[in-house]
Structures are given as C-alpha cells and as structure tokens.
Amino acid sequence: MNGTSTALILVGLFLVGGIISFLKQGMPKSVIVLLGISAVLCLAAGALRIKGLWA
After folding, report:
1. 11-48 burial, b for 16+ CB within 10 Å, e for fewer?
2. pLDDT at 55 exceeding the cut of 70
3. Of the chain's two ends, which shows fewer C-beta atoms within 10 Å, N or C?
4. CA dihedral sign of residues 19, 20, 23, 27
C-alpha cells in the first residue's frame, strides 16, 4: 500500500462522512448523490491501486 492509495481511501471515507452529515442536515438529494458517486470512485480507485490492478 503506497501513499496514493492511502490518500484515495482517506478521501473516500471523508466523503462518506460528508454524506452522513448532509443526510442529517436535510441537504438536497442531488448533492448527496454526487458525494456518493465521488466516494465510491475514490474508494474503488484506492482499492485497485492496493491490488496493483491500476498502475
């Protein structure tokens, strides 16, 4: 696991925390969906870098 994969995973977890916070605040669903998509992409990219599938 290198620095880039760690950073991507941490950003993804940060965005998941934002989703939870925004849900509690009653923010618009479009913002929550956008955060969800970006969180999934960050977590997936970090996981792919750990496994070495994505250089």
Report:
1. bbeebbebbeebeeeeeeeeebeebbeebeebbebbee
2. no
3. C
4. negative
At residue 30, the 3 state secondary structure works out as: helix
Whole-angstrom distance, CA of residue 55 vs CA of residue 20: 31
Residue 44 CA, distance from chain mean position? 8
* Whole-number CA gyration radius for the chain: 13
Residue 26 is classified by DSSP as T
Work out the mean pLDDT of the chain and round it to a whole number: 91
Q: pTM (2 decimals)? A: 0.85
| Number of other CB atoms surrounding residue 8 within 10 Å | 20
